[in-house]
Structures are given as C-alpha cells and as structure tokens.
Amino acid sequence: MTEHKRYKISKISDILDVPEDRLDAMFSDMREWYAYAKQIQFAESENVTFGKTFTWVDDGIGGVASSAIAFPDGTVIEMEPGQEVEVSNALAKLVDSIMLEAVKTAVDRYKKEGEE
Fold it and tell me: What is the pLDDT of residues 54-66, one digit of tens each?
C-alpha cells in the first residue's frame, strides 16, 4: 500500500510545503475540515481541547476521511465520517484521563511536600 504524503498545517507558512498543483485539493479538504471544526469547537474546556493543526493527506480522495478525539492521558478515539461515538465509552475515557491527571498532581504535591 502506498503511503500518502501528509502535510501538517498549524501556521499559514506551512501551506508553502504543499505543491502548487495540489493547493486546490488541499483547500477543498480544508474547507470541509473548517466546517466540521466549527461545529465541535464548543466542546473545549480545561480538560478537552480542540487541536489547532490541520493534517492534510494527499490521497486523491476529496473530503475529510477521518478525525480523532484525543484525551489528556494520550487515549485517542479514531473516527470515520458520520461515525457515532458511544458517549459512555468516550465519557469513561475522559473521566479516566481526568482522574489520572488528578492522581499525578496529588502524588507530585505529596513528593514535593516530603522534600521540604
């Protein structure tokens, strides 16, 4: 299977890495990503952040082929277009990641207090 070229766009100058003859395809996919991103941006909070990087895969297929939900502990739920995520599963992973961070913070605080 051929590996398609990937372009991470996190600042405007990153677009210069995309070949000129592929710009129309990249911008078409980016418009779809933008519409999707605007819809899910409302979910941002202290423990949930929306990734600000658009990764374009030059696969010759129009549109956004997949997306992912990443949790603070590194857990990632990959999604295909139109796929529904079971809320209980996603919520359980989010709670687990928040609890892991809380435990790490408490352990770090305990270690620091023990050193003083």
Answer: 888 898 888 777 7
Torsion of CA 3, 28, 18, 8, to 10 degrees: -70
Which residue range is the domain that position 11 belongs to? 6-115
This prediction's pTM: 0.55
Does any domain span residue 48?
yes
**64: its two tokens:** 């956004």
Q: Give the count of domains, the chain.
A: 1
- Here the tokens at position 33 are 């990503």
Inter-residue contact 26 to 18 (CB < 8 Å): yes
Structure token pair of residue 85: 């995520």
Q: What is the DSSP letter of 82?
A: T
Average pLDDT over residues 75-82: 66
